[in-house]
Structure formats: C-alpha cells, structure tokens
Design goal:
single chain; alpha+beta; 11-stranded antiparallel sheet; 27% helix
Length: 352
C-alpha cells in the first residue's frame, strides 16, 4: 500500500506540473498564431472553443488574405462579398429551420480540404461553424472557387493579330486544382470565358475606375500629363463593345525637338498618345487627343477613346512592361488597339 501511495503521489505531482498551451498569456498566444499558416490555423480551430475563437479572428486572417489575394481582389470584390454575405444573412433570418453550417463545416465533407492536409476526425465534437461575414469565411470562399468576383485580365495574344498590352474586365474565380483562375467576360468580343489564367495576368480593378466597362473613366490627370508619362487609356473599336485599358506613353508634338530644356508640350492643349508596342509605320502607333474635350471622342474608323489613367506606381509600370512583345506588328488590315481579337495581319511582324 505504501508503494502504491508513493506512485499516486508522483502521478499527482506530475499532473500539477503539466503545462497547457492555454496557460500562456494571450499576447504570447497571438504571437504564436500570427506565425501559423492557414492550414495550421484550421487545425487549431478544431481543438477547442477557446482556440477556435482565437484562431478564426479577423486580424489573423487579414494578413493571410492580403498575402495571397491582395493583388487580385480590390474594393469591387469586397463589395461583392458584402452583398453576398447580406444575402445569406437575409435568407437565414427568413428560414430559421435552415441553419448555416459555415465554411469549415461544408469544407469538412469535401475533398477540397486535401490542399491543406486536414483529416478531421468524425468523432470531433468541437463546433466548427463560422460567422458568414468573417475574414476567414471570405478567405475560404475565394479558395473554394465558388465565389466569383470582379477583376481585370492582362491580355497579349500569341501571334501577330495586333492585340497587345491591354487588360479588360471579367468575373473570375479560383481553381485550386491548377492554382489558376477561370473567367467570364462581359462581352462576346473576348469570348464567353477562359480557363487556366495565371496569377501574373490578373489584377484588381484600379481604385476610382468605373466597374461598368461600358462607362468611360472620368480623367483627372489630363492637365498634368507631359511627355514620358506612362498611362492607361480606354479604347474600343465599336460603340456596342466594352472599353479595354491599353498601355501607352505620352509623346512629344511634331514641332518639338524633345529637348527637356525647350519642350513646351505640357502647355499645349493637344496630347500625343504613343503605343510604342506597335511598329513606327503602323497607323496605330500614335494618336492625339485634347486635354479639354477628351472623353468619348472617336469614330467608327479610328475607334472610340474613353478615359486616361496616369501611372505613377513603378510596380504597376513594371507589370505592363513585363508583357512587352518580342515582335511588333507592321501593318493591320482592319482594327488596331481594341480589335477584340479579330484583327488580321497583312504582313508578318518583325523583331523589335
């Protein structure tokens, strides 16, 4: 009995000296959780209710959301998500019998969890329901591919059709199997859709531009433009098509000797827009517009120009230049910038 008593005392002492993760200060726990991956946080969420609340907090998932999705989601995607959430909350209040199972619960019974290596136990009694408006729910809605959101797609067709250095609006969703995106387009001009779009071809719509691609952008930079400025300009070949955004540079007027000490182009009402991705002999290489009467100008022959965005961010400029073509088109039979993929080459292109 004495021997047994000593064993029990040892076990009791060991139990008293046991340390739990939850014994750490809250600040210490948060520092640990901030270093966990999305997969690790998901595992922690299923341990107990305390860890579930801490590891599903918005401030933890904001960082992961920005790291993975920050370059492809913008204000328009957030608005779309909030609208989606409001719709779900409204449906839930109308029908109390249909309880929202939450993102993790629905993922639990799906093979989509394989990407994070989670194998939940069927006997787990930890509640995994999440608020539908949480950042974690937003993250997994994007990851699942079920959420379609507004974005813009960079386009440069292989071959010599004359369609180079532009981007256009689309609704996209993520495909976790291929780590690419699929797109639905707002116009038949780009086809009905596209798959296997790489991350490098996707961007969030710039702040301040119209979400409706048929609406011309209101330019607020026209009086500040000067030769050498990088810009994006809206262009379309027909009035019934949406605008696309084309990369261009502001050039010098014909009489100017291009000497910075003598150049007065920035004081002239006429702006020269140069598409240097086209050959110097191309009719689409150069055009002019007015600082005062720029919006909606154009015709059925030369196409229709919309707004202009001045590019100041070097990363944004570098992104455009990364798509610079190895060849430039000498001449196009029909359409130029904004051909919507239907232009035909009369001659082969040459190295540039």
């Amino acid at each position: 009995m004495a021997s047994c008593s000593r064993v029990e005392k040892v076990k009791l002492k060991e139990k008293e000296n046991m340390f739990s993760l939850l014994d750490l200060p809250k600040l210490g726990l948060e520092c640990i959780f901030e270093r966990l991956s999305p997969a690790d946080l998901c595992s922690m969420v299923r341990v107990c209710s305390v860890l579930r609340e801490m590891c599903s907090s918005d401030h933890l998932w904001e960082r992961h959301l920005q790291q993975k999705w920050g370059k492809v989601i913008g204000d328009a995607a957030y608005r779309e998500w909030r609208s989606n959430v409001a719709s779900k909350i409204g449906q839930s209040s109308l029908s109390k019998q249909k309880k929202e199972k939450g993102v993790l619960e629905s993922l639990r019974n799906s093979r989509r969890l394989s990407w994070i290596g989670i194998k939940p136990e069927k006997s787990s009694k930890v509640r995994t329901t999440l608020p539908v408006d949480s950042v974690m729910a937003f993250y997994f809605a994007l990851e699942s591919g079920k959420f379609w959101f507004p974005a813009q797609i960079y386009y440069r067709q292989n071959g010599y059709t004359g369609v180079m250095l532009l981007c256009y609006d689309a609704q996209i969703s993520y495909d976790s199997r291929t780590n690419t995106f699929r797109a639905r387009y707002t116009s038949q001009g780009w086809g009905t859709g596209e798959e296997n779009i790489g991350w490098d071809r996707v961007r969030a719509p710039p702040v301040g531009v119209p979400l409706d691609p048929f609406v011309p952008h209101v330019s607020d930079c026209l009086h500040d433009l000067k030769p050498g400025d990088h810009i994006e300009i809206q262009w379309k070949s027909r009035t019934d098509l949406p605008y696309a955004w084309w990369y261009a540079l502001i050039g010098h007027l014909e009489p100017c000797d291009k000497n910075q000490n003598h150049c007065l182009c920035h004081e002239n009402d006429t702006i020269v827009v140069e598409f240097n991705q086209y050959h110097p002999t191309s009719r689409w290489r150069r055009t002019t517009t007015s600082r005062k009467y720029h919006p909606r100008q154009g015709n059925e022959i030369d196409g229709f120009y919309g707004g202009i965005r001045k590019l100041s961010d070097q990363e944004e400029i570098a992104k455009w230049l990364s798509f610079w073509p190895n060849h430039v088109l000498i001449r196009v039979v029909k359409d130029g910038p904004g051909t919507m993929g239907h232009a035909r080459s009369e001659e082969v292109s040459e190295d540039y």
